[in-house]
Each structure stands twice: as C-alpha cells, then as structure tokens.
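ERR on first pass: missing label on line 2. Operator R.T. fixed the label and resubmitted. Corrected input:
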Amino acid sequence: MASETIAVRAAEAGRRTIAERLHDWVVTVDHKKLGILYMLYALCFLVIGGIEATIMRIQLVAPNNHFVSPEVFNQMFTMHGTTMIFFVAMPVLIGFGTYLIPLMIGARDMAFPRLNALSFWLTAFGGLLLYFSFIGGNGLYGAGGAPDVGWFAYAPLTSPPFSLGHSTDFWTLGLLVSGFGSIGAAVNFITTILCMRCPGMTFGKMPLLAWMNLVMGGMLILAISPLTAAQIMLSIDRYLGGHFFDTQAGGSAVLWMHFFWIFGHPEVYVLIIPAFAFASEIIPVFSRKPIFGYPVMVAATVCIGFVSLSVWAHHMFTVGMSSYANSFFTITTMAVGVPTGIKIFNWIGTMWGGKIQFKAPMLFCIGFLVQFLIAGLTGIMLAASPFDWQLGNSYFVVAHFHYVIVGGILFTIFGAFYYWLPKMSGRMYSETLAKWHFWLFLIGFHLTFDFMHIPGLLGMPRRIYTYEADRGWQVWNLIVTIGVFFQAAGVLAFVANLVWSLFKGDPAGSDPWDAWTLEWSTSSPPPEYDFARTPVVQSRRPLWDIKHPEDPDWKYE
Amino acid sequence: MSSAAFAEPTNQGQWTLPSRGRVGMISLIAAESAIFTIFVVAYIFYIGKSLSGPAPKDVLTVPIFATVCLLSSSLSIHLAVRALRDARVGIFGLLWFLTMALGAIFLIGTGLEWRRLIFHEGLTVRTNLFGTTYYSLVGLHAFHVTVGLLVIALVMAFTLLGKVTPKYAERLEVFSLYWHFVDAVWIVVFTVVYLVGR
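pass 2 clean. output:
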C-alpha cells in the first residue's frame, strides 16, 4: 500500500510542469534545497566577481592603459571585493553548512527551517540590492553609480559630499540586509548543532565539519553584528545628518576603521574555518585513515575563534596607532599562527602513512595545504608592524590575502564541490575534466598570485588604475594578467563538469568514496526526510562501525 | 546501504538535548549584545567630544520612574510565565497586561523626553555628536522595546481570545528571555548615558 502511494507520487512528480518545480524551489524550507540555492547563487556571483577582476587585470596589463576609466576601475575593485566576500564566499560556505550539517549529525532538517529560508532570501535580496546600484545608484542627483569607495569604505569617502547619489547607500543596505541573513544562518547553525544531534553523537563524536561550523556560527554572530551596527551608524550619518564619522563635527574616521575591522578580521576566520572543515572531512577519506588528533583539532579551532577576535587592528598599522597597540596586535596576530600551524601538522599527520588516492577533492585539498601555508607565512611577515609600514596597502598585501582566500578557501570549496556533488545530484563528475580544472586553476593561481607579490615589494600600491612605464612593474603585471585567463579556463572546466555530470554522469550510489560520516548512509540525492530512521552512532566514524563490525571504532575511542 | 543498518536506539531515554527555542534565543541575544556593544562603545568614545552645545548635563534628567517601570516588567513577565506554567491563566493574563503597561509607560517616557529635547532644548541627531550618539543608542534600545511590546500585545490579544494555554509556557519563556535582555541593556544604557556621561 505504502509503496503504491510512493509510486503514484513519483509519477505525479514526473508530470509536474517547470513552473510547478520552480515554485517548489521558491517556497521550499528544505535544508538541502536551500543549501543548493545558496551555492548556485554564490556560483553566479563568482562569475560576476570574476569578470570584474578580469576587467581590472586587463586595465593593468600594460602601463598607461585605457581599457576602462579611473571611475569604472574604482567601481570594479569595490564591487569585486564586496561581491567575493559577501555574495560568493559567505553564501557558498553557509550553503554547504546548510546542506551538510543536518545530514552529518543525523537530523531531518535544520532547527528552524523557515528561518533558514528567510536567511537565504535576505542574502539573495542583499546581493540584488548591491547590484541594482549599477542602475539606481544615480538617484535624483544624476551622480554616483555602483559603489566606488573600496570594500572597506573608509570615512570620509562615504560622507555625503564625497559620495553623491546613492552608490554608498546601496552598498550599506545590501550588506545590512545580507548581514541579517547571515545572523539568521548563524543562529540556525548553532541551534541545529547543539539541539538536533542524533542519539549517541556527543561532542566528542561529532564530525569535525559540525564542530567547525559551530565555531563559525559563533564567530559570525560576534563578527557580523559589529558590521551591522557600523552600517546603521553610516546610514544615520548619511540620511539623518549624524556625525559618527564626520571629522568636521568632532567625529572620528578611525572609529569606522576599528568598527569595520572588528568585523573584517574575524570574517577571514569565518571563511577559513569552514574551509578547514572541508579539508578535515576530505583528507582522511582519501588517505584512508581517521583524522589525526581529533581533540587537538577541535581545541585549535576554538582557540582560533577566540584569538582571532583580538587581532583586527593589524589592518591599521599604517594608520598610526600607539606603540602599545602596535605591539599588542602584532603579538596576537602571530599567536593565531600557532593553532593554525597545529592544524596543518594534523592534516599532514593524517596523510602520513595513509593510502592516498589522488582524486579531484584530494588534489584540491593538497593544493590548499601548500598554498595556505605560504599565505600564513606572508601573513606572519605582515603581522610584524614595521614590515607592514613598508608594505601596507601595496600589492604584496593584495597577493597575501588572495593567497588565503583563493589559494586556501576557494581551493577547498572546489574540493568540497567534487566531494559532495555525487551526494547532491546522485551522479559522478568527470575525473578527467576535474583534473583539467585542477591543473589549469593551479597554474593560473600561481602565475597570478605568486608574481603579484613582486610589484608589491617594488612599491606598487593597490587600487591604482594605471602606472607609468618606467617603474619596472610592467612584466610582473603582464604575467599576473596571463594567469587570470588560466584561472578563467579552469572555472569554465568546472562549470562544464557540473553541467555534464548532471546529465551524463554515472550514477553515484549512496557512498561512492567508501566514506565514514552519516551523510553517506542515505541515498544520493537524499530523500526529503534525509533519514528514514534516525541513526544512532557510537563513534566518530559510524559508517566504519557498520562496514567493519569485527573491528569497530568505538572500541578505541 | 540503508539507514536501517544502524543499531536500534537503546539509550534513547538518556539522550537529552538543550531546548531549541532557548538556544536560538540565546544566540540571537548574543548577536544583539554585539550590536549594542558597538553603539555603547561609540557613545563612550564620543563623551565630551561635541564641538558645540547642548551638553548632556545641561539637558538630560535622570528618568528614574521609567527605569523602575521597565525593570519591574522583568519581574512581572517572569511571574506571568510561571503562572501560566501552573495553569493559572487568569493570573497570567493580569500579569501579562501589567508587563505590557509597564513597557508602554517606559516607551511613553522616552517619547516625552525626546519631545522635550527636540522642541525645547533644540537637540536633534544633527545638532552635535551628543545628539547623534544619544538618539542612536537610546533609539536602538527603544526600538527593541517596541518590538518586544508588539509581541507582548499579540500574546495579550490571544489571551483575551482565550487561545493561550499552559502548553505555550515554554515559548513564552523563550520570549521572556528577550524581554529580560532588553531590560539588562537598559541598565547599561542608563548607566552610560545618564550616570557616566552626564
């Protein structure tokens, strides 16, 4: 009887029109659909942000170039930065969390499914609001356009006399609205992980992805809220004539910097901790070993969470703070390197002696390990305030943080896509195309961001729209721009692979990687209720226990 | 592999997890606290930095009555939820109405203070840094009181319609956390604005 009903339902599902299916996606409160919506939304913005980066690189390929005007160039770097952080990195990571957390902790949905939908649509609306500035930024004054104040929008550039029209207002409101979405997502993450774990899943047996997303949720709450407060203040300044950041009335431009970076630096860790989470799930599976040092991994994550809340002013060494402040922020910034280093050793320890399978997810994670280490080393260099005085606001800094965000975060995101795509779509990707993606992107990444350090050391400031021929920066900028096209080709291979796998990929089965966490115990794609019966776990690797009843993990934990 | 392969739950009786509503509300309160912290820091940072008058000590009077009302409402909402849990719905309705009235008195007090400051003392957001930070901080708090009052009024309406039963005590308790938070924030705002900053 029950199976007949299901068969009838399936037949009905086949007959539904496209409009009905789209309607399903718009009104859904299912964490899997919302997770996928987050990711698709982020991928669209990844392409948009990438086009903006390409426009900048074409402009800088040769000295005295006139590909775009200085005004457009300012808009491009502002929109590129804002888009990539708020509308690519955040939604894609929140999307993975939304999709994976309930599956990995054995729950049927997030704690607050409707809040989940609200968070997504707020984020989506925030992005549309930001991009509407290209049309609506003029306002009634006929001045303005897309925001052009840089992604950290220092005062007084944002004050009404310097930012006519509504360009800055679209930036403010876009981030405010998507910020509310992020806070909603963080509340949902924390509540889901604390209150929805399946029986037996104590804190010591939670997958590392859940642990790290818990820390990420806590940090989101503490990091996004200051930005929200600062954006409210900026709106009060711009619309009600307030003086928070108005130096002519006694306000302080430096206060905005503090408020922005109190958000801005923890934000980096908000982004990198889920990336750590992907690496911590992928590396053990493709090394065929359990994660090395699980408790230390958790402790290091929590430690990073705390310490990273007190490092923000290392973005402000060049502003001119007291020597005490400089010393404090130098020390805390370097201290963050310690738990991060522990993590890198743990991942290497996991791979050590393992039977490593060089599939696409693992390749991207190995790329991440090497590149993130280098990014951390240039980070330690910039953490020393005297060094930063020399190179602050130069292309060395730009190269450093792109090494973190592209070399670290984006690489693991690609790895995570290849790892969990079979679960989401039920079909395998093409390993050949994925290898093309990896190598093209790796070559492009290193051409662009390795060589970007050098013009920085030679004194090229960030955000300039062109430069003179006699500075010796020309050849480096040429190489950097060439790398961009390799990266673009890599992303093209990625998108082609996604589309190809949806239609032509081999059926994946429920557990293509012979993995150990709960999401692989249900079918691919999972049914709407995730698990027909709530699982019960006894160790960190519940599927290992089932596959190896003669030698289960819980005997040793 | 199907999830049926998992062992039957044996210790389900001992498997207890924290309440979702409570954890969610505490997370939200943490986020709100971070927002208020930034506004309080800005207020403290700008004390005495206005380039022109009026100064806080010239125009502010300490709103003792309104403060007493708001803080008492914390007690009344606590007793109201307890009454509801004990299924004394009549007492609950009375105490809930008292909470609403106390909150409303506080809000009216803020409104009257703003009216005086704007029309008699000529202090607006534009006037000076004090005006900007004062209206932002007190306004942010008043906004939270307003949101709380709207929820309280909604529950009051349901109470009058007889729809509030003891099974909702848990939800109202979660909401009461928010109300306690709004009161606690007022203690900070009151201290900073009317005691330290004046």
